[in-house]
Amino acid sequence: MLRLEGIRASYGSITAVKGIDIQVPSGKIVALLGSNGAGKTSTLKAISGMLALDEGCIKLKEQSISGYAPEKIAQMGVVQSPEGRQIFVSLTVEENLRVGAFNERRSAVIKERLTSVYEVFPRLKERSRQVAGTLSGGEQQMLAIGRALMASPEVLLLDEPSLGLAPLIVKDIFEIILKLNQKGVTILIVEQNALQTLKIADYAYVLETGKVIMEGKGSDLLQDERVIEAYLGGSKS
Q: What domains appear along the chain, each with residue ranges and CATH number?
């Protein structure tokens, strides 16, 4: 579905992504793990067209999308829910969701997508007329994911969806991510919460200073002593 081949990307003189290869098969959940500064978010930005490549190629269904504008990449089906949620706080919940359908003009299709999002996030339906800035952190994260779903993505990029949320809400968010995948959405997730992520990921890559240092099935990495020591605090319970 989505393939990164030897991509390198920089911010000025600082190289953030150093020649990595990643595959995201159709219908799977693939995770990018690593500490702050590992290059995870930069990788997502490169995929989304928000960070130019120095080298390498990004392909969607064998078609290169390298160098495409972010809106073109979104129209092709690769949609990102960004770190920090970045919702429009002065708009209502439903207005935020409708912004996500920017590439769709047919009102009937937008209505269908709204119905689908509300099925996944019934809490958003209850708060559809509420100003987004008054939502809780967990509800704002649901809104950010729901807005991305309004673009009808083939590949959903999730950047730190559990960041800053209470443990009980984190559990809800990961259950929702799993449910979305079961509905057929291919997911690439960036997370520091390695434990919860590896529990749902089919495959995972561990990044360190812009390079892939480890990869494998999520279930295998969950048992790997190096991962347990570095990212699970010495425990996988």
A: 1-77+153-161+181-237 (3.40.50.300)
